[in-house]
Amino acid sequence: MSSKSLKYLTEPLSNSNPIIVQILGICSALAVTVQLKPAIVMGLSVMVVTAFANLVMSLLRNGVPSRIRIIVQLVVIATLVILVDQILKAYVYDVSKQLSVYVGLIITNCIVMGRVEAFALGNHPWASFLDGIGNGAGYASILIIIAFFRELFGAGSLLGFRVIPESWYIDNGGVYANCGLMLFPPMALILVGCIIWVHRSFNKDLQEK
Amino acid sequence: MGLRKIVDNLKPTFSKGGKLGFLASTFGAFETFLFVPNTTTSHGAHIRDCNDMKRTMIMVVVALLPAFLFGCYNTGLQVALTGWTAFFYGLVRILPMLATSYIVGLGIEFAFAQVRGHEVNEGFLVTGLLIPMIMPVSTPIWMVAIGTAFSVVFCKEVFGGTGMNVFNPAIVARAFVFFAYTPFMSGESVWFSSWKMMGAADAATGATALEQLASQGAMQWSALDAFLGFIPGSFGETSTLCILVGGAILLLTGIASWKTMISVFVGGYAMALLLGGCGAFDYPAYYHLITGGFAFGAVFMATDPVTSAQTSTGKYIVGFMTGALAIMIRLVNPAYPEGMMLSILFMNALAPLVDYFVVEANIRRRQNRVKTAK
Q: Distance from the CA of A187 to the CA of which of A4, B49, B128, B178 falls in 20 to 30 A?
């Protein structure tokens, strides 16, 4: 893989991350990150949808009249989302139930549409595919970081396994208690803010003047 | 003046370029704590006034003292102690919380001031005292620490430090602990200390006056007891009398605005009369002014000069809405027996909007006057 293609993959992980730099897809980042498992599944689903939507639209880019491109994009994205939804229902039914409407709402996720419009319509299929994977991975990485902290401090577990021992809790004679605020979306927004804070203090060129 | 000499000798070390220059603002904080600064501002228009921020903050602390001292006594009283034993029990019980809130809060403030090269401000003197006063006495220490840290970082420093915050930091600390650790901030057992010392009785349990009013429509104490403060509740909020004494100090020294303070009480009473008239409860409406955190919020929180409205008319509007909303939350929303915290936060957010419309209305009025004069 050439260094240019590699850049399509790595750039959205940090310097042009969809959530913390482009500020896209915040709503689902707040909604599905109470636990780590749904967050991982959601991140993977978005990655698959972005990658293949980019690929298909890039293949079609010279055949679609620009006046009807939005409706074509929607058809492609909706098809992919329905496929993903059906696969999740078939293989990981409990997670699919936890994610509820948010899998269907990937259709309206700004990241998917944004990458198709901004990148796939003007680039080769292979570059577009890599860009889709990169942006999906950037989205997934932030989701996983948020969900990690929310599940750890909100429920004391990770991926459903207990991390903080039962004996630490006040009910069992310890001193610890779960932070209930972590289970609410506002705290997820504050966590996103913290991630942006840390990220920008390391990437000074991203700081707004 | 030996101390002055020591400070002057140390100064070059801590100034810019000195060996410990990065600690300049910490040094500055301690120097101005010990001595009146001898520097004068060279340009700009200034109002000469005896009240600098240090004196303002100290006056608020003095105003809080009656409620604080009574809180100590009441904490002991609630575990069946009397007289001076009760007072010392409460004092010893609250000290760890007080120390935690000051150490954590000031630690973060000093760190931020150091990194940004700002001076350390006195604003946290009051916040640090307010935080333990509005928490139940048995709140675990580390929750106080987390609440304080959250509020100093996310409510104050993120917005730019003292004087720039949108929300009252003490209320944000309480709101954080309330929503994050709900079982430790409400219910039947949190209002009583469980420390067994000085012959304290076993930890009692019982609902606060407000919770009783909400669930049974009556409270087990007389209105006089509730006014004087012999009821369970958060540490400093129970005695309306002591709070009013503090309020009088704030008004006499001109630190708090009487417009806000009075209109909070008027708004609360009006809303209680209205909802009582509609049959929401059948005890006297003034019960709502003497129970829970209403008086404390009205006197010490709603009048916060930073987060309250800045215009005169705005103060009346924001104060009235704060009181009215607090009573409305208490009576209409069954999930929250106490609404003062939420209503103050809500009106903090709305205060700039109210100010904006007051200023706009003033501009319009004066423009009309010019038009008719032509």
A: B128
Is 0.85 exceeded by the ipTM? no
Q: Looking at residue A149, what is its pLDDT? A: 92
Instruction: Write down the pTM of the prediction.
Output: 0.86
Check residues B260 and B283 and name the one with the higher pLDDT: B260
Q: Does B140 touch chain A (CB under 8 A)?
A: yes
Q: Which residues pair with A162 in a beta bridge?
A: A157
Q: Which of B143, B154, B184 sits opposite A190 (nearest CB)?
A: B154
pLDDT tens profile A31-83 = 888 888 889 999 999 999 999 999 999 998 888 888 998 899 999 999 999 99
Q: How far apart are CA A138 and CA A111, in angstroms?
A: 10
Nearest to B168 by CA among B301, B363, B357: B301
Reduce the secondary structure of chain B to three states and give it as a string.
CHHHHHHHHHHHHHCCCCCCHHHHHHHHHHHHHHCCCCCCCCCCCCCCCCCCHHHHHHHHHHHHHHHHHHHHHHHHHHCCCCHHHHHHHHHHHHHHHHHHHHHHHHHHHHHHHHHHCCCCCCCHHHHHHHHHHCCCCCCCHHHHHHHHHHHHHHHHHHHCCCCCCCCCHHHHHHHHHHHHCHHHCCCCCCCCCCCCCCCCCCCCCCCCHHHHHHHHCCCCCCHHHHHHCCCCCCCCCCCHHHHHHHHHHHHHCCCCCHHHHHHHHHHHHHHHHHHHHCCCCCCCCCHHHHCCCHHHHHHHHCCCCCCCCCCHHHHHHHHHHHHHHHHHHHHHCCCCCCCHHHHHHHHHHHHHHHHHHHHHHHHHHHHHHHHHHC
A173 at interface of B, judged by CB pairs closer than 8 A: no
Give the type of residue at B235. F
Which candidate in B138, B174, B179 is best for mutational testing of the A interface (most A CBs within 10 A)?
Answer: B179
B2 touches chain A (CB under 8 A): no
CA distance B238 to chain A (A): 27
- Tell which residue, B149, B150, B130, B143, has the closest CA to residue B57: B130
User: What are the residue boundaries of the structural domains of chain B, listed by start?
Assistant: 25-37+51-366
Please check whether residue A154 is in contact with residue A179, taking contact to mean a CB–CB distance below 8 angstroms.
yes
Q: Which residues contact A42 (CB under 8 A, 6 or more apart)?
A: A28, A32, A99, A102, A103, A140, A143
Residue B176 forms contact with A (CB below 8 Å): yes
